[in-house]
Automatic annotation (TrEMBL):
A GO molecular function held by the record: catalytic activity
Natural source organism: Oreochromis niloticus
PANTHER family: REVERSE TRANSCRIPTASE DOMAIN-CONTAINING PROTEIN-RELATED (PTHR31635:SF196)
Protein name according to UniProt: Reverse transcriptase domain-containing protein
Domain of life: Eukaryota
InterPro entries listed in its UniProt record: DNA/RNA_pol_sf, Endo/exonu/phosph_ase_sf, Endo/exonuclease/phosphatase, RT_dom
Domain Reverse transcriptase: 458-730
Length: 1215
């Protein structure tokens, strides 16, 4: 029923205390209401209502639990925009249990929810269904009545029944729902819809965690430091071992912190109560006396109340991870949707008990099902025969580390190592069972490091582990594409104590330096300078060779079942011994794995403890390295087995590729090899716990038809045309790689853009969505696959992204401008084509780096009888080289030729030329002595060039140990360099410099990103066209240096992306002025402030309008009052942001905020005849002030924030 405001008020006269409503301003056209019975004890905390009477959202507490109630009426013909608005509101504002109900006037399931013959569903209905799915809201009646047909509305006019009234809630609260019933249609044309829901929460078993906001208080830190000192004076008497001393110290400090927090809470509550009481008295006094002095007395009281409430807000921000300010309101809305979706994904509302095979949605039974499953999973089956393990390992040719390497492993842990480890801890991460988060160690490192050092070294020397290290809790994360009702479809992540992770990280760092010598290049998982792309490129080489040889071959993708969780500890310890690790280090690992316990965290509650008897804890820094060592004997066994034939490419035989447990095996004799491989895996499993998941094992056959016996014995999918390995679909026909992989990703990109397009997002948020959501998907393919991507495809991606960014409206900023880095005036929108080229160039950079080791590189370097790298510096050699019959190499060289052509590098590539193999360098064709230079290290010309000139002969002899008889050759090279190659150092392009650095034997990290940035720099695109427009309108001159500094100032305006984006919009001339509008629509260009200007452009609207003169004069005085300095109050300074160099950092920070607030004030009065006021600017600055201080506090930089805002606080206190 739709009631007017006056009609709604009648409910209160009927006795309802809790009535919340929204009415249409015209009366009974539409309206919604929420009535809550008085007996429920509802505690109101907030409300949002629609002026059109379409929805009302109420927040409060019921049975001491947070609850959000929302009643919605969607009038017939409602637009997508209305649903975006209401769902965005729910995403951003709802707390606790959310119950959303109402008349939506649309069908979510046309097949079941109407008697109409037309059941196709409208575009709006599909969009609303997508939004509900993305947000994680569940249609309760349909969830409980899967394929039933029942209706809530009857249209006499169309003689049609339909279900258009709904109850929704988040999936995390489904266990609360008892029933949902469609009633009779007795009083209106709608049936009653009833949902029963329970609010009495089950008791939750949770853990204490430190409130990191306390660490902003220096007195608290000093007090804790003093408490620790007192504790040590009483207990550190030499009779207590260091680990017990440390663990007891944590317990002691935890007790002190809990007591301190209780006292602080009481003091804060008392102070807030007193302040509010005092404020109430002052307000009453002012209402009677109207005395200005009373207002002055109220101001500091309000500030104190504001400060206390801000601390509470900060705490909620921290624990709910609502980065509303830093990410920006619109971006926060995106984040809110994303978090709701993630919460829905991670919430387990029903699960199958594997013992009874029954599905339950009861919280206690869900927890019990997981507890039983993980108890069984981590229970060690029959113990393997140690003698057999030793015999198996001793039969393998495995590397062995020596005494010096072992000494480095077990040397005393230094305070510096612990300090470095603490500095690397990521903040805002969940603590372990002891409740101490990373921030505690970062802020209290000085008193804690000595204790940590003693404890760590006691453990490393063979002493006991701190008892608390044996405890952890398992956070279960659903695996993509798995059945969420099956406990096996979740990944258990161990959340460990931070002190344990520090210790493990130090050991892992030491061990990681030895891993490249212990683990073959076949294994690329978690080994330094090895990547997934290495395995994929190698797999393509293998397929290419198979297709050329046309011999019967198979590729098998082996899938280990629960690989990390089934690692047998005794086998692991024997493996460590076989690799030569010393007894002391192994004993340390043994202690880590001695009777550990875990509790499973399901929907925020902890189960009983279970004892772990096997497995590597996912979440432990040591686990990836230990697993690589654990699986290496299996890989070595496959390598050494002569009865297993691999695929030979160049001089390299390829049998196995690994990325952690993802294994790809190539067999050239499949009929005999596959049964043998299965036997080897079974034997390895008996010894180690490794277990093959035969259902998920994939196979690709080439020129091979398996026998009936083999098919019966090995039930693989023998007729697959493709298989997935490390996220890439490998095909029998390499020509199909582009189609099968990019089509799949294109579909996902289109779905993402369409889904994100339903959200209310601003420009910056949309650009960032592309960077964090779309770019990684494409970049992975670019780096993994050496395949041609058509130019048309790049244009389509750019058009799709542009439409998404601008909401299918006309762009206001050039696409190429958006692709510039932020410091150049862009928004760092990715240029997919440049990223693609950069990814294709990466293997060529790896060719040139002698320290980069990979099997695919060995294959490619063995393809020619001369160094293949030498063709990179020779245009004459490229055509012949990239026509070679090798899929990967020929393609990469073609792309290098494209880069040379696009960016005009014809002369520069001479620096990469090898004198001994350069066709243009005629002396080398006649004198083969130059090839000896290569053996001495003089490979490329760039190796002997410094500061744009060839180094002198004496230095060359000393560095490369060449003969003095080579002087004439030196002169020949120098002459060639001066005529054909030389360019000033400053003119060497970034991409050539990257190759030169690779030859200099520097391990280049982030190669693709560096090459991409060099491409952007070489394009010479800039925003100078924008500065020229400002110059023309304002009659000023802007230098390159000033223009660059203006952009840097925009990037450093506040901690908020929203305000930075807003500053960017002002400087880039984003806003449509009357002058621009007249060119688009032909309308008048007069200023809306009625000042008489007939060509109102950006300069006029924001600065020179006569109506703004008083405003800017007030701002000039404001700047003087706040900063207490006189500065050049010009358009260039105050609007464009060319801040004088003599302004100190603190004043510059405030000045940028004042400037952005002024611009915001102007846009808030857009199209209004009245100009903005000084008061509006001050209100905006106060809003920024409030959120900036909360942000600094969250970062544990409260003092820094207070220093930066000191002048503003002083100004507001006296104003």
């Amino acid at each position: 029923m739709h009631l007017s405001k006056e009609e709604h008020k009648k409910w209160k006269r009927m006795g309802f205390k809790n009535i919340y409503y929204a009415s249409h301003r015209s009366g009974k056209k539409r309206g919604v209401a929420i009535l809550i019975p008085n007996k429920l004890g509802f505690e109101f905390t907030g409300e949002h209502k629609d002026k059109e009477g379409r929805f009302v959202l109420v927040k409060g507490k019921m049975e001491q639990e947070d609850v959000t109630l929302c009643n919605i009426y969607a009038p017939p013909g409602s637009s997508t925009g209305f649903f975006k608005e209401i769902f965005s509101l729910i995403a951003a504002e709802s707390v606790g249990t959310c119950i959303c109900a109402g008349d939506f006037n649309l069908l979510l399931h046309p097949k079941w929810d109407t008697t109409s013959r037309d059941r196709r569903g409208t575009k709006l209905e599909k969009q609303v269904k997508t939004m509900l799915s993305e947000l994680g809201l569940i249609d309760i009646w349909r969830y409980l009545h899967k394929n039933e047909r029942k209706f809530t509305f009857y249209s006499a006019r169309h003689d049609m029944h339909s279900r258009i009234d709904y109850f929704f809630t988040f999936s995390k609260d489904l266990h609360r729902v008892k029933d949902c019933i469609i009633g009779q249609r007795d009083l209106s044309d709608h049936s009653g819809l009833t949902m029963k829901i329970g609010f009495k929460a089950s008791p939750r078993n949770t853990l204490w965690r430190l409130n990191t906001g306390l660490l902003n208080n220096d007195s608290f830190k000093r007090e804790m430091g003093q408490e620790l000192k007192t504790y040590l004076e009483l207990n550190d008497n030499g009779t207590v071992n260091a680990t017990i001393l440390w663990d007891a110290a944590k317990a002691y400090l935890r007790g002190k912190i809990i007591a301190k927090c209780a006292v602080l809470k009481k003091v804060r509550a008392k102070k807030l109560s007193d302040l509010q009481e005092n404020l109430g008295k002052l307000e009453q006094l002012h209402a009677v006396t109207r005395c200005p002095q009373v207002l002055e007395q109220m101001r500091p009281v309000k500030q104190e109340i504001h400060k206390i409430l801000s601390e509470e807000i900060e705490k909620k921000l921290k624990y709910n991870r609502q980065w509303c300010y830093e990410a920006g309101p619109k971006a926060a809305r995106l984040l809110s949707w994303r978090l709701r979706w993630q919460q829905q994904e991670n919430t387990i509302h029903k699960v199958r008990n594997l013992k009874t095979n029954k599905i339950t949605n009861k919280v206690e039974e869900i927890q019990r099902a997981f507890e039983e499953y993980y108890t069984e999973l981590y229970t060690q089956p029959d113990k393997a025969d140690e003698h057999k393990i030793q015999n198996f390992l001793s039969s393998l040719d495995l590397p062995f580390i020596g005494k010096q390497q072992n000494e480095k492993l077990i040397r005393e842990i230094s305070a510096e190592e612990i300090n470095i480890g603490i500095s690397k801890l990521k903040t805002f991460k969940a603590p372990g069972c002891d409740g101490f988060p990373p921030e505690w160690y970062r802020q209290m490192r000085e008193p804690l490091i000595p204790l940590l050092k003693a404890s760590f070294n006691y453990t490393l020397s063979g002493g006991a582990l701190p008892p608390s290290w044996r405890e952890a809790y398992l956070s279960v994360i659903p695996k993509a594409g798995k059945d969420k009702t099956d406990p096996r479809g979740y990944r258990p992540i161990s959340v460990l104590n931070i002190d344990y992770k520090l210790f493990a990280a130090i050991l892992a760092k030491r061990l990681s330096t030895l891993m490249p010598t212990l683990i073959e290049e076949d294994q690329t998982g978690f080994i330094g300078n090895r990547q997934t792309h290495d395995n994929i490129r190698r797999a393509i080489h293998i397929i290419d060779q198979i297709l050329k040889g046309k011999t019967g071959t198979v590729l098998i993708g082996l899938d280990a079942e629960k690989a990390y969780n089934t690692v047998g500890w005794e086998f692991l310890f024997h493996v460590l011994k076989r690799f030569g690790l010393c007894d002391r280090f192994i004993q340390c690992i043994r202690m880590i794995y001695m009777s550990p316990t875990a509790r499973i965290k399901v929907n925020g509650s902890l189960s009983n403890r279970i004892i772990l008897q096997r497995g590597c804890r996912q979440g432990c820094p040591l686990s990836p390295l230990l697993f690589s060592l654990f699986i290496e004997p299996l890989a070595q066994c496959i390598r050494e087995e002569t009865r297993l034939e691999g695929v030979t490419t160049g001089n390299v035989e390829n049998k196995i590729c690994l990325y952690a447990d993802d294994m790809l095996v190539a067999l050239g004799n499949p009929e005999e090899g596959i049964p043998l491989l299965m036997e080897m895996l079974e034997e390895y499993g008996r010894l180690s716990g490794y277990r093959l998941n035969i259902q998920k094992t994939q196979i690709l056959t080439f020129f091979f038809n398996p026998s009936r016996q083999l098919v019966a014995k090995c039930r693989f999918g023998w007729h697959q045309s493709q298989m997935e390995y490390l996220g890439i679909l490998l095909t029998k026909d390499l020509a199909l790689l582009y189609e099968v992989n990019y089509n799949r990703v294109n579909k996902k990109i289109y779905e993402d853009l369409e889904r994100w397009g339903l959200l209310h997002l601003d420009l910056g948020s949309r650009v960032r969505a592309i960077k964090i959501n779309i770019l990684p998907k494409l970049l992975y393919l670019f780096a993994a696959l050496p395949v041609e991507v058509p130019a048309k495809q790049f244009r389509e991606w750019d058009m799709d992204c542009s439409r998404f960014i601008w909401g299918n409206k006309r762009p206001r900023v050039r696409y190429a401008t958006l692709q510039l880095p932020g410091e150049w005036g862009g928004m760092a929108l990715p240029c997919f084509e440049d990223y693609y080229l950069a990814a294709q160039i990466r293997p060529l950079v790896c060719w040139c780096n002698s320290k980069y080791e990979a099997k695919w590189k060995d294959i490619e370097l063995s393809l020619m009888d001369f160094p293949i790298q030498s063709v990179l510096g020779s245009l004459e050699s490229l055509p012949q080289a990239y026509q070679m019959q090798n899929f990967c190499v020929s393609f990469s060289l073609k792309k290098w030729a494209d880069v040379i052509k696009i960016f005009g590098l014809n002369r520069e590539i001479g620096l990469l030329g090898w004198p001994a193999y350069l066709p243009r360098f005629l002396p080398a064709l006649l004198d083969h002595k130059f090839r000896e230079w290569s053996r001495h290290g003089i490979t490329t010309i760039c190796m002997i060039v410094k500061h744009g000139e060839v180094i002198n002969f004496e230095d060359m002899c000393q560095i490369y140990e060449i003969s003095r008889e080579d002087f004439y050759r030196y002169l020949q090279v120098r002459s060639f360099f001066q005529k054909e190659v030389r360019i000033p150092d400053a003119d060497v392009s970034g991409v050539i410099q990257i190759f030169m650095d690779a030859y200099g034997e520097n391990i280049i990290r982030g190669t693709i990103g560096k090459v991409y940035r060099s491409f952007i720099a070489m394009k010479k695109t800039s925003t100078r066209y924008v500065s020229h427009r400002w110059e023309k309108e304002a009659g000023i001159t802007i230098s390159e240096e000033d223009w660059s500094q203006m952009w840097k100032n925009v990037l450093s305006t506040t901690n908020s992306l929203t305000w930075r984006d807003f500053g960017w919009k002002n400087l880039i001339r984003f806003f449509i002025t009357p002058k621009q509008k007249s060119k688009i629509s032909g309308s008048g260009a007069s200023c809306w402030r009625e000042c008489g200007e007939v060509a109102a452009g950006c300069f006029h609207v924001f600065w020179s309008c006569p109506k703004l003169k008083t405003f800017w004069e007030e701002i000039k005085q404001l700047v003087l009052d706040v900063l207490e300095v006189t500065l050049d109050f010009s358009f260039s300074t105050m609007y464009l942001g060319n801040i004088p160099e003599d302004i100190n950092k603190r004043d510059s920070y405030l000045l940028k905020i004042i400037m952005v607030a002024c611009k915001k004030a102007i846009t808030k009065c857009w199209l209004q005849t009245s100009p903005p006021t000084r008061k509006l600017v001050i209100d905006i600055i106060n809003t920024i002030h409030h959120m900036e201080l909360i942000t600094f506090s969250l970062r544990l930089q409260k003092e820094k924030g207070e220093r930066l805002w000191e002048r503003w606080d002083r100004y507001t206190s006296r104003d």
